[in-house]
Known about the structure:
Pfam families: DeoC
Largest sheet: 8 strands, parallel, barrel
Protein name: Class I fructose-bisphosphate aldolase
Organism: Paenibacillus mendelii
Shape: globular
InterPro entries: Aldolase_TIM, DeoC/FbaB/LacD_aldolase, DeoC/FbaB_aldolase, FbaB-like
Amino acid sequence: MAVNARMNRMFSKEGKCFDVAIDHGFFNEYSFLSGIENMNRAIETIVDASPDCIQLSLGQAKHLQALPGKKPGLVLRTDAANIYGSQLPNYLFSEIIDEAIEHAVRMDAVAVCVNLLLLPNQPELHFQCVKNVMKLKSACERYGMVLMVEPLVMLPNEAKGGYMVDGDIQKIMPLVRQAAELGADVIKADPCDNVDEYHRVIEIASGVPVLVRGGGRASDEEIMTRTVKLMEQGAAGIVYGRNVIQHPQPARMTSALMAIVHKGATADEALAILSGDGEGQ
Length: 281
């Protein structure tokens, strides 16, 4: 099956994957552009660090696929949304690009990514997302494309500002399960407040590999420690964006995280790589 061939390009033989997300410009939010103002340079920097995948929008995927030689797999972001600012607009949307899977096949993508958003008191937005996933699933089956669904539970904007993860595991688990029920081949899920409980999220995904989102910028120590714990809980890998591209050393950060995901490195070993003192440099 074509979907298995693409899954094999995404994941190592041990079933692990690190996807670097550089699709933030798709969402019309100024703060998301830090570190990716020059997309050619940002993509080349990450490619040189050799993650498994790079997540890009349709308009920027050409920069990756134009590079010669072996390169990370393309994960194509399929939906644009307007829910990431500090203030929510009167009308919320999450809209998929036209003929998304045909574009993905043409661009030699290994997977497509789509949101499954759950915002407080916004059932219409959730409804849009469910329809998006259903539509993409049919096309993915037709073309053998991997469907990555991103169940994203957000806090009310008045709580902590815009685009803040709600780490309540009782909200994350049913949304992750819904993603699996809708036919996700891969799930890109939020971390929960208590990382030691994350095995419950892995279990509820019913065998679908779970890649954990990175979210907003955090300290190096927090990122490494949390990533190690998530992998120990059974995650198949990670999808980090701003904690890579907004880091002063994005290539070293990628190498450090790859060591955790694929080699079982400890947080201290990963921090040594990040500082330039460990293996991988």
